[in-house]
């Protein structure tokens, strides 16, 4: 796939850094073998690819971004009333998350909002981690906000399931492998709205890798796949070889109307490292940046273990089996601030 012409504003990539060329997969292409081949090569190469023709109208995508901005434009007092809870639903303030403790001097210079699968508080499932009711801004404060986000959540899950079917085929599995109830039949699917600050009067630009300041520190995602929609401001970078010294970082260019998709750690475990969960980070250039991430993990009780098609006598499993819930709980604990530090805001 050739480099995309995304406009002068989006393409303002620093001259000393290159952009990564990603495979582009159309969900409307009737040639399934072509899609499988493109995806498999992307999973072996970088773990990142574009998805287009996914069926979500551009005007609706624009509305989701507009509603996201309306929330982040609220006062900090209003946003803190919706501070994330122990189920990881709700608002995450700037510096709440630190993804790269070895290289960051503070946390991530971004704020976010978690929205999961809606599970009523009186449902027995709500007793499990990551299951429960969402936190929603008052309707009179942000009219139609909840309805927009719930619709987007359902649409993004539809797209994720379509992508997972191609991944299954690329792993020499039945196309419906990930459709099982213990996987994406009852997933832990989380929508996260993200806002990266622009230039701050006291802190300057919100990214300076040489000083350990990042919009989002280097990390790999936790689950199966992530669907990322972005505005036209560059910032996402990937490192294809995490063990290289020095690490080489490449920008991923935004693609209007499409998703940037990357693989998560669970898929790397399932595939015995055949498919890659790649390090990535966000380095902003002083402009505000908005993105919408959709993290797709299997169900709470799903056991993630090496797939039969990915192991042999020469390549035995590299990881022990682990439940999705246990893995996610530890990763969130490692990267988010303890909620007790916000006691004064909850009074």
TrEMBL record:
Print the keywords alphabetically.
Answer: Iron, Metal-binding, Oxidoreductase
The membrane-spanning stretches of this chain are none
Domain (Fe2OG dioxygenase): give its ranges. Answer: 187-298
Taxonomy, top ranks, is: Eukaryota, Viridiplantae, Streptophyta, Embryophyta, Tracheophyta
* Keyword Oxidoreductase listed: yes
The protein in question is named Fe2OG dioxygenase domain-containing protein
GO MF assignments: dioxygenase activity; metal ion binding
Q: Which domain of life is it from?
A: Eukaryota
Q: Cite a single Pfam family from the UniProt record.
A: DIOX_N
Write out the similarity annotation: Belongs to the iron/ascorbate-dependent oxidoreductase family.
Species of origin? Dioscorea zingiberensis
**Claim: Ribonucleoprotein is one of the keywords in the record:** no
Tell me the first and last residues of the signal peptide.
none
């Amino acid at each position: 796939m050739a480099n995309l012409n995304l406009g002068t504003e989006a393409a303002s990539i620093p001259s000393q850094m290159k952009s990564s060329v990603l495979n582009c997969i159309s969900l409307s292409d009737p040639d399934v073998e072509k899609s499988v081949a493109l995806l498999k090569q992307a999973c072996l190469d970088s773990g990142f690819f574009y998805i287009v023709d996914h069926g979500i109208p551009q005007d609706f995508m624009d509305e989701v971004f507009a509603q996201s901005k309306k929330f982040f434009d609220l006062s900090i007092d209003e946003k803190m009333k919706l501070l994330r809870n122990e189920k990881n639903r709700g608002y995450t303030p700037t510096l709440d998350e630190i993804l790269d403790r070895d290289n960051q001097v503070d946390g991530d210079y971004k704020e976010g909002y978690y929205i999961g699968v809606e599970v009523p508080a009186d449902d027995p499932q709500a007793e499990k981690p990551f299951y429960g009711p969402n936190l929603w801004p008052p309707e009179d404060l942000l009219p139609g906000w909840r309805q927009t986000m719930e619709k987007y959540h359902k649409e993004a899950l539809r797209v994720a399931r379509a992508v997972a079917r191609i991944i299954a085929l690329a792993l020499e599995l039945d196309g419906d492998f990930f459709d099982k109830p213990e996987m994406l039949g009852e997933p832990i699917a989380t929508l996260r709205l993200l806002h990266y600050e622009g230039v701050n009067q006291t802190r300057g630009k919100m990214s300076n890798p040489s000083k350990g300041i990042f919009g989002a520190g280097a990390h790999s995602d936790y689950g199966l796949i992530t669907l990322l929609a972005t505005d036209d401001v560059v910032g996402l970078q990937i490192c294809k070889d995490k063990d290289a010294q020095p690490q080489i970082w490449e920008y991923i260019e935004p693609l209007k109307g499409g998703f940037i998709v990357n693989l998560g750690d669970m898929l790397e475990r399932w595939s015995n490292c055949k498919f890659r969960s790649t390090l990535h980070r966000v380095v902003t250039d002083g402009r505000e940046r908005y993105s919408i991430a959709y993290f797709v993990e299997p169900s709470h009780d799903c056991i993630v273990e090496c797939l039969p098609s990915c192991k042999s006598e020469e390549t035995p499993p590299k990881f022990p089996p682990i439940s999705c819930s246990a893995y996610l709980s530890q990763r969130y604990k490692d990267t988010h601030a303890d909620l007790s530090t916000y006691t004064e805001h909850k009074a």
